[in-house]
Amino acid sequence: MKKHVVIYDTTLREGSQCVGISLTVADRIRLFNELDSLGVDFIECGLAGGSPKDDAFYRELANIKPAHAKPVAFGATLKPYEDPEKSPMFKALIDAGTEYVTVFGKASEFQAREILGVTVDENLMMIEKTVSGLVMSGKKVFFDAEHYFDGFSGNKEYALDCLRTALGAGAECVVLCDTNGGVLPYRQREIIRETLREMPEIEGKFGIHAHNDSGAADYATVEAVIAGAFMAQVAVNGWGERCGNANLFTVVPNLTLKLGYDCIPNLEKLCSFAQRACEISNTKMWDFSPYVGRNAFSHKAGVHIDAVCKNSAAYEHVAPETVGNSRRIMLSEQSGRAAVIAKVGELLPKLGCDMDSAAMIIDKIKELELGGYRFEGADASFEMLVKQLLGIRRSWFILNTYKVVVFDNDAGEKYAAKQPSQDPDNSNSMTPQVPTASAIVDVTVDGREEITAANGIGPVDALDKALRKALTSFYPVIGRMHLVDYKVRVLESTLATASVVRVVVESSDGTNKWCTVGVSGDIIKASFDALVDSYDFMLDNFGEKN
Question: What's this model's pTM, rounded to 2 decimal places?
Fold first, then answer.
């Protein structure tokens, strides 16, 4: 039977201390439910009594019945000689309504004397009184031994006394914390082994909490589990104070897939959960994140792609499906024929592609990339290019002419003043956005000409709106389409305003997303080329069935 490692998630508490992370009460509830569905064992819910937001979350938490995870309230040890009955923090931990609580206290003589300003005996008393008081109140207590590794190196016996005091007062387990994140994994492993020799009674009753200030939190956490830790404390994306904490998305698959531990029941949901967590927190997923990143199983070099097509183990340490990710074949001038055939098979499985066609496609890619194109991440444009080269690209519309006019500020403001408020109830007193450009588009579809105009916030927005308006009369499904993202890259800055630019457009119909690319010395033309590819891709793939 696989040995189970308890996964304790700190995202809702320590993760919220990460710069750039700000979670509302609703965000916390959603993340709590997502973590519960993923199958983590414990979810640290925030500092009890720490703020009105924390209090509101704990009130909402009382209405949730988790399927698997156990919520944990978090707080600190009592102050010296503080009466638990008169302590707001102690009362908040009791009132939080959770079966489990975690309290943190100093496990370092230096920290006790220099930071708390108490004697070593007073610090032990604070630990004992807090833990025993909570246990007597019916709580199950985890004790976070703050600065344990640094404290052990400074005064081993005192650090051990802090652990003995917490366990003697009734703590379920003690968590060894590398609070400053500066102790390297080999040294942590040595300290854990020495701790077990000195305190054999701690076996099966200790966890690990690692910070990433030296870039080693994930490795240190795995090493601690190998050394005997039964609990691993982690956070979504490694969020946390300063450089963050051990990363849930790295630690859990490493323990499960590399070492055979049992961690969570739904590892195949890891990638989709990572994406939802970023949506909830309004953050961007790092594409290069191990296991769950968009590029974790992406292959670009021709040699790599050829090998992976033969046997994925050639360049993949695990199967992407095990964590819910997928393989991506990236096309560039480095690609070989096997890579092109694999990519065409992925995007157009019914089409097929022989060696001669692949060679032609590679030559065209090399020619275009020399001029600034890049098809990495622009699969929709690559698909349109393949169809064009193979003579099967459908012409959904013919562009006759287009024209873009940029307003001066007065003209835009006069236009905006005539428009009704965007808020029908006027409850938010929203000011209409001021258009800065107008576009006219002349297209022909099946012999019928359509000329339309539209205003927009900038020339590209105006052009997109005019083209969409023209095409919607022929293809109503276009009404579902909108731009999600727009990026411009100057390819040769030394040419100043004459530089060639690459434009990447991400589009969506509400369900699907796709990216297209355009390159030109004229930013409007580059944008328009990307837009045309985007509309053609939409109509090719989602037009007929809608």
Answer: 0.78
